[in-house]
Design brief:
The structure is a homodimer of 556-residue chains. The first copy, chain A, is α/β, with parallel strands linked by helices. Chain A folds into 2 domains: 325 residues, Aldehyde Dehydrogenase, Chain A, domain 1 (3-Layer(aba) Sandwich); 192 residues, 3-Layer(aba) Sandwich (Aldehyde Dehydrogenase, Chain A, domain 2), CATH 3.40.309. The first copy, chain A, has 22 helices and 22 strands. In chain A, 61% of the residues are buried. The interface between A and B is large, with 67 and 67 residues. Strand 21 of chain A pairs parallel with strand 22 of chain B.
Amino acid sequence: MSENLFAKHKATLDGALAAIHSRDYFSPWSENPSPRAYGETAAADGEAAFQAHLNKPFDLDMPGISGRVGGEVSPYGIELNVQYPTVDMDKLLPAMDDARKAWRDQGVEGRTGICLEILDRLNKRSFEIAHAVMHTSGQGFMMAFQAGGPHAQDRALEAVVYGYETMASVPAQATWTKPQGKHDPLVMEKKFTACGRGVGLVIGCSTFPTWNTYPGLFASLVTGNPVLVKAHPAAVLPAAITVQVAQDVLKEQGLPPHIVSLFVDADPSQPETMALAQRPEVKLVDFTGNTAFGDWLEQNCPQALVYTEKAGANTIVIDSTDDFKGMVRNLAFTLSLYSGQMCTTTQDIFVPKDGIETDLGHKSFDEVVEAIATGVSKFLSDPDRAAMVLGAIQSEATAQRIEDSRGLGTVVRDSEKLTHPQFENARVRSPLIMTIDADKEDIWGQELFGPISFIVRTESRDHSIELARDVVKKHGAITMGCYSSDDVQLDKIEEAALDACVALSINLTGGVFVNQSAAFSDFHGTGGNPAANASLADHAFVANRFRFVQSRRHPK
Amino acid sequence: MSENLFAKHKATLDGALAAIHSRDYFSPWSENPSPRAYGETAAADGEAAFQAHLNKPFDLDMPGISGRVGGEVSPYGIELNVQYPTVDMDKLLPAMDDARKAWRDQGVEGRTGICLEILDRLNKRSFEIAHAVMHTSGQGFMMAFQAGGPHAQDRALEAVVYGYETMASVPAQATWTKPQGKHDPLVMEKKFTACGRGVGLVIGCSTFPTWNTYPGLFASLVTGNPVLVKAHPAAVLPAAITVQVAQDVLKEQGLPPHIVSLFVDADPSQPETMALAQRPEVKLVDFTGNTAFGDWLEQNCPQALVYTEKAGANTIVIDSTDDFKGMVRNLAFTLSLYSGQMCTTTQDIFVPKDGIETDLGHKSFDEVVEAIATGVSKFLSDPDRAAMVLGAIQSEATAQRIEDSRGLGTVVRDSEKLTHPQFENARVRSPLIMTIDADKEDIWGQELFGPISFIVRTESRDHSIELARDVVKKHGAITMGCYSSDDVQLDKIEEAALDACVALSINLTGGVFVNQSAAFSDFHGTGGNPAANASLADHAFVANRFRFVQSRRHPK
């Protein structure tokens, strides 16, 4: 308890607090895996630390450890063979619930300081985590470093500062003085304590094992709830390292380390997780994954608040452009990055059947399609760049989905099996692009997770907007994009996005992509369409994870 | 649109914003129904305005009006015979949903200004509303004025400022500038729009037809949601006046008046309300009432967010006191006020079987009981004061419950039928107080709504605390009180209240009562025990009623 962690990290906290209100760029950490930012030996040390985990038991400090399990296989073809502890939930969950009092009594600043210290240490282990993310999710190294390291830490910090701000909005103590005319005023001394709700369960996914886990983990933790991280069985290591770092800090502060715990199920099917999510100790559930399970959680865990990010059909409306080449370049990267395995990747691109107006003159529907297909192929023609940007396909199911989808439309760019320059057994696939008619919404309206996209032939510019709006309302979306050089159409598109409650990116032709969102500035998901019931992050994401409990008395 | 209502009411807004953070006393309105505060003719004008509603149709501006209904009978024995419009929900709800865009486009300050103007006008009609509240709820006039008028307006204002603060925490426009080393920075212009979720449904109760309706109404309204007020069939008039005032302001601002609408069901049973709460347009439900219906709403409206205040068993632990007479006086008022028909009134008072230590020496269990029973009788011995404080029993069911409860314990103070000095047919009853053994928790643990309380004979001081904590965890509570002059016991009680997540009032012997909470300072309900899933008011109460929808583009 010696070090005041809140004071230590106050500058980071203040910077983040300013950023969530200004929505300007902010990050306390470098997204560049450079020796200058992380130290001369950081890259080598991180890789060695990752290697040291392989083929070994992974130790965590939890009551009720019952055995070991682990069967991760890297999408790059390496068996990790890390053995994680399994736990008897009848022992762990009551112990976590008991730890609530100690965690509550740390107070708002105490918990905030500990969360910030955990994040600081996670940042220092970004290279190790990057390799763990790469070899579970299949992301290329640079993306695994950025999205799995500093960008995930940014989203965690964002959740921490939202939680801090909401809790700190009410003072721990206050005096209430009510005038009574000529009589003495009524005076009360009041105490307000932010109390967590119970145990938080965070159900992670295999594609972003830190980025999608951290917001729920840190939002629940800072607001006073012990957190059980239920890692995806195919992507445990990044979560396990995270839990280990958190436990180290908790132990140093004299707190029960199992305030942050890990659950790994032997079987990737869901019955065990379903039972866990319905446990009486579990009062908060954060979930990233498929719509069916997300819907089940929302409807079958009445004892808990459930925050979900599920599937959707992300769309781009191409109406017109004054930078045709820039648009094509931007789309080529968007469709290629991590082989479309982002919840933000565009699936449906709407183009009017009569084509569009551009700075290079009128382009027919077929010319637009050809430009996009060729743009992707050209972008991926350098094998090193292709390997770095595409990464590997996380699961065999996604690889199979590509095979199964070829008949759904007219293939204009086929997916190919590529050989990775470093990992000969890597599961690498390039994007599959098809054209399809607008009336086949039953096909293009469903999410087809992976590098599969449709260019949808619409009746008109307005028809494109209508389709884009309606598919979001029906199936949900995390992102919507558009290209238009016509202000009248842009106004219509903005209104459609507001109506469908989806974030809109307009005319991206440079270094910002529709599938990337910046913490502290961009809301990830709106929580207002079927793709997600929450947003990363806002006050709604944190405010109900704790309750204010007050006492009042007259002064002595 | 001529007047800037936000600027007009900015000082009120700023005062309320400061108060929710300082938690000091605040109210922009006088709780004193005095000519100086409200004008020389306000009392007479208000009563005349109330009288003018009786035996007449009540007009509201809504699409789909289909007929008239109304059968309110005052607990003071007067038939109101006000006839309210009934509405075809297939016409009204789609029209309300259509009005969302116009309401959204008012922006954060526009909506806030309109809400503040509505509140200002409601305050000016506090006398009229007081009579309407009195003759529906049965509250005495003074309480009807305060709780139905300025205190209800305070809670509404509190919801408005929480909504405003949360929405205004993100700017409508922002510039994001990300450095790129030696290259030009990436720059994005971003817009953020607070968008309501859909139609808000507010289900009112018969005992506090404005105080319990306003928070949900104004929280949903300010955050961009048209609101349908479903008044309790026995207490429509206060809600109808409120909706009329809101519609006047909306019309003056060129907005569809049905952004605030009223639903009155002919039949006090629930099927019509159940269907309404499940309508696809309804995305928010606020409910005050019985646990069974509250639980049903929480579990059967997956399309909506549901905020409930339900029943509970409020408790007081009597451990010891250094002001025995002050304690008894305070309890006498608490048990008498509005005949115990407050969701905050104490039902169970825990006293150790071996008695307590006081400033007047040791008091045996029987002496404590006798003092409380006599204290209530003495307090009510003045018929005018009794009539003013007790008010009338709102429903025949509550009156019957008193009759049915006599056999549940040992009666130490019987309930009497009293005659009201002004209203000969008023349904007036004094409090029923019984003693009961601690092991009969099946009896004292259930809420018995009305002037029915138990003094529970416990094994010891610690046993009292244990029982008080456990009953809140099991059945919920809005309030907990305690009397102790022993700091060790007080610490245990405070820990029990934190553990059970219930607001605690300590050693109240003066002019503050456990059943009263002050807006901007006291949280009404914690939202963390079974009595309520929300608190009035905090960020959690408002933050999820709207979503931020953003668009971003590079600057031109």
